[in-house]
Amino acid sequence: MAIKKNELYSSLWASCDELRGGMDASQYKDYVLTMLFMKYVSDKFKGDPYGMIVVPKGATFDDMVAAKNDKEIGDKINKIIAALAEENDLKGVIDVADFNDEDKLGKGKEMVDRLTKLVGIFQGLDLSDNRADGDDLLGDAYEYLMRHFATESGKSKGQFYTPSEVSQILAKVVGITKDTSQDATVYDPTCGSGSLLLKANNEAPRGLSIFGQEMDNATSALARMNMILHNNATAKIVKGNTLSSPEWKDSNDTLKTFDFAVANPPFSNKNWTSGLNPKQDMYKRFTWGIPPEKNGDYTFLLHIITSLKSTGKGAVILPHGVLFRGNAEANIRENLIKQGYIKGIIGLPANLFYGTGIPACIIVIDKQHAQKAAISVVDGVQSKVEGRSIFMIDASKGFIKDGNKNRLRSQDIHKIVDVFNKGLELARFSRLVTIDEIAKNDYNLNIPRYIDSSEPEDLHDLSAHLQGGIPNRDIDALERYWQVFPNIRATLFSSDQQQSARPGYSQCLIEASKVKASILAHSEFKEFASRSLLPFKKWLKQAALSEINQGDSPKELIHEISDWLLTAYANSELLSKYDIYQILMDYWADTMQDDVYVIVQDGWPAGNVVRELVVSKGEKLKETPDLIIGKKKYKAELIPPHLIVARYFAAQQSHIDDLQVKQDNATQALESYIEDNSSAGTGSGDDGLLVEALNDKDKVTKASIAARLKLACDSAEIKALKQATKLFTGEATAKKLVKEAQDVLDLAVFNHYPTLSLDDVKALIIEDKWLATLQTNIISEIERVTQQMANRVKELEERYSTPLPILTKSVDTLSDKVAKHLKAMGLE
For a pLDDT cut of 90, what percent of the chain falls above it? Predict the structure, then answer.
């Protein structure tokens, strides 16, 4: 049975728990990722003489399992890893972590227990056949771990990882298309763990030739492992300082040039000149200017431009300061603009990256079309070239909070990529800015100079505050709603004709507290809600989810059907197509992708599977059981039991619901009786009739009641104790009936799974699980949009409902009352 992504992720993260305490995340990532690599290549290539990794005898994960509980387990794991590294030219890559380090892993039994548990966690994973065609399950798990490691490593040590969402944007705007050749090259001079290179590689249908350089030894090792886990063992990743000692050179000692480049270099590097004299740079990278000695941001940009072919394209993440800082950087910026190298600039939200909280931007380079955009100078006069412009996007507002960081959503990524690649100009978001306009601003590229992304100011109307009424200007500002709900407007507000004595103002006809209910009950809203589901129903037919087959690619599937959903809602009234798209992508990440991964590997019959959860002695269950039959616990692979119940056992569930109500009533009656008849329950100082039945924990129980009955003499107390006993018995009987009925239903559901036909399985998964959830969430989005309108109407009604004269009169009236009370009290 295929491993679900989220189950794999949780198992891997559990392995991290075994290492916490002796080291921080920047260190234990080396251990966890090495263990993941060893398990993967051992499962995948053991015994395969033609595998991309040769697994020699004595260097398998099975050998690690054999070393469990061995007092020399750390040394043995080191030797196993060393043997695999030696065989595959991976020395210095997979043998970075020392599994015999007592300072990090503990001494003696502590180390033995820790490593034994660590091996045990990976031992339970079968990674031999868990890569659906076209999808890198282990590679994605690696990315998952990298994100968590970066989060836990903190500001100083999280720079080895570029957030996946940002990497996706760079890969999609750099210029790679479906026609890009497999021989095309992609380069990252500061490749970190390699995520940017891999995202770019994925954009080409047949992949690219990958080249990277990384200065940090441990991080370059991570990148090499990452490439292998993503099935890119031929990727060329080298160690070294790109600026002072670039490794990728041609035979004539010039920089090797590439078709594409992507990079997230360290921000504001203060030591970029270490080992480098920029005035005598043999690679001629500083033709357009030398960056400041204490700030190397432009250094990497200039290196990349030099490293691109004449038709090359690049995308680089840099801090916002490169767009507007002066002096040497201003000169470089002006020269690059005049050369036409800068195709576009994308401003990102602040606090996205793990190494810094400052906002960053993506600068997109296009040398292929630079000549068309370049400014030539003849006799000191700049010539005008048609079409000279830079496309700018201000995407700083689109994100969600994710812990202490901000994160781009799927819809934010898609919108940025759509708008950039299609050159769409959207108000307060994107603009094609001419070089002439930029020149008038002294070649300052600060995005707010060209795009005002601020929300319009909400102005108060002083006349309305003084005389009442709601300004028609504010009502008209909701025109996009009134185009859809013209009659709702008439229901909510009086017209100018009805208020002819004071033109330009209207009265709200409905109390603020009743506005939303009035809108939801209106026929126009109901018609709008129905119309808004039509694109979803059209999408269902196009998506043809029932035709998902074994061997399909989940990533290709979600890419295709999500784009279809965007298209379906492209012209929808009031609803944002990107918000609807986000609903699908959130559900995909939470539930649907796991289901699809199982289906494309094991087929739809996986819906019939209910597997028993078995754990070794002393271990805890990693999963929450769906059914408990006798003493055995089971997990449904794809179809939760409540869906079976809803479709096939509704009458039985209704009977249990009735029994549950009776149980709840019995419990409530018992609790109320105890509270009314014990001083502990009333909080008073008087003893209740059940006070003597309190146990050591000041709690009345059936046992304490029975014990007190043997000693009680007072008739009233005996009567109270007997009534309490009766209520305890009634509650126990009610609970027993519920449990018995639930056990019968659970067994019936358990026995029903094997009887489900293929059509039954598809109906339960597609209709009852996937589509029911998606439709419910879309309906919620429809109501949310309407709630925005209702909130604004309510705000306007409350703002102007009490004009100044009425407020003044009210204050005068209240002042008179206070004065009269003071006079009556002799305090005039």
Answer: 55
**How big is the chain, counted in residues?**
828
* Chain segment 93-114, per-residue pLDDT in tens: 888 889 999 888 888 998 998 8
Pairing of strands 308-319, 430-434: unpaired
pLDDT digits (tens, 9 = 90+) for 696-737: 777 888 888 888 888 888 888 899 899 999 999 999 999 999
Cα distance between residue 422 and residue 417, in whole Å: 8
State the pLDDT at residue 25.
59
Cα 127 to Cα 99, 106, 114, 140, distances in angstroms: 22, 29, 22, 13
Terminal Cα-to-Cα distance of the chain (whole angstroms):
87
Helix (H) or strand (E) run with residue 188 in it: strand 185-188
Sign of CA dihedral 670, 673, 679, 684: positive
The sign one gets for the Cα dihedral 674, 679, 681, 682 is: positive
From residue 674, alpha-carbon distances to 598, 663, 728 in Å are: 52, 17, 10
Most distant CA pair in the chain: distance in Å? 119
pLDDT band with cut points at 50, 70 and 90 for residue 616: low
For residue 478, report the phi and psi dihedrals to the nearest 5 degrees. -95, 25
List, for residues 490-503, the tens digit of each pLDDT value: 999 986 555 445 78
Is the Cβ–Cβ distance between 533 and 779 less than 8 Å?
yes
Sorted by sequence, the CB contacts under 8 Å of residue 578 that are 6+ apart come out as 411, 414, 415, 566
Closest CA to 508 of 533, 478, 536, 544: 478
What is the per-residue pLDDT for 816? 82
CA-based nearest residue to 60, from 72, 45, 75, 73: 45
Angle between helices 577-587 and 554-568 in degrees, nearest 10? 150
Whether the predicted model's global pTM rises above the 0.90 cut:
no
d(CA 726, CA 705): 11
**Can you tell me the distance from the alpha carbon of 164 to that of 144, in angstroms, rounded to the nearest whole number?**
9
Q: Is the dihedral of CA 257, 258, 259, 260 positive or negative?
A: negative
DSSP SS3 for 390: strand
Confidence of residue 144 (pLDDT cuts 50, 70, 90): confident
Q: Which residue has the tokens 């019968």?
A: 744
Place of tokens 């033609």: 50
Of 68, 66, 69, 93, nearest in space to 81 by CA: 93
CB 199, CB 167: distance < 8 Å:
yes
d(CA 293, CA 272): 7
Give me the phi and psi of 759, to 5 degrees please: -65, -40
Of 342, 336, 322, 316, the closest CA to residue 171 belongs to: 316
